[in-house]
Amino acid sequence: MADPSPTNPGSQTAGVGIDLGTSAVKIVALASDGAFVAAGSAPFPTICDLPDQAEQDPDAWVAAAAEAAVSLDLELRQQCRDWRARVAAIGLTGQLPTLVAAAHKSPRPGDHLERCSRG
Fold this sequence. Notes:
Elements: E1 14-20, E2 24-30, E3 36-43, E4 54-56, H1 58-79, E5 87-94, E6 98-99, E7 116-118
Parallel strand pairs: 1-5
Antiparallel strand pairs: 1-2, 2-3, 4-7, 6-7
């Protein structure tokens, strides 16, 4: 992700934003004044087996979120080793409309149908 003049998070409280988009997970860290600090992202595939249909694997969302978080962590730890202790807020947003079907048994990570449809 492009680096629009980062701010050092050393003495500032940061916010972290996580976006589960239609093709990637993007994570951004912001300083308390709203200035950009760092970002990470990771793509995930969309499966289009039939016309006018798109599906995604929720496990791919989780894997992409983990990859993006590791990328952000590596960048921020170079600037401030204890950056995680300075996070005051986390925001989460995602694509709409999305249907994630859960299995009949008690939900646990990975308990879902194989793919999820986007309309």
